[in-house]
Design goal:
By secondary structure, the protein is mainly β. The protein contains 2 helices and 6 strands, in the order βββαβββα. It has a domain of 51 residues. Strands 1, 2, 3, 4, 5 and 6 form a 6-stranded mixed beta sheet that branches. It comes from Mytilus galloprovincialis.
Length: 121
């Protein structure tokens, strides 16, 4: 059996494209996840586009790594994405506060006190 220690970073596809709603146009950063079952838009973007929520849906945060059993109720909206070829694509989205936030680098006090790790933080 062979095992490689070499790691290969896999980065998602990204793009910028105009999103339009009722004459309001905002250039949005888009993160493509071809395996995802849902699409998301930030509350800030819906505010800029003056988009009104269509309905509320219930999702389980465990899909985002949250181990609790609570359910989140999120608003939905349909956005219109304009492609380079002029096509208008309607995409149903969930409205969320943030899509990606900075990762916090927290080192526990126990780890910090290990002799072989002293001075590495």
């Amino acid at each position: 059996m062979y095992s490689s220690q070499q790691s290969h970073d896999i980065l998602p596809k990204t793009a910028t494209a105009p999103v339009v709603n009722n004459g309001q146009e905002v250039e949005c950063n888009i993160l493509f996840d071809e395996g995802a079952q849902r699409s998301f838009i930030t509350k800030k973007s819906t505010d800029q586009l003056e988009m009104n929520p269509i309905e509320k849906v219930s999702i389980h945060p465990s899909a985002f790594g949250d181990l609790s059993q609570k359910v989140r109720n999120l608003d939905t909206a349909t956005m219109q994405l304009h492609t380079d070829t002029g096509e208008k694509v309607h995409i149903d989205t969930l409205i969320v506060p943030d899509i990606a936030v900075p990762i916090q680098n927290k080192i526990s006090q126990t780890t910090r006190n290990l002799p072989h790790l002293k001075g590495s933080t």
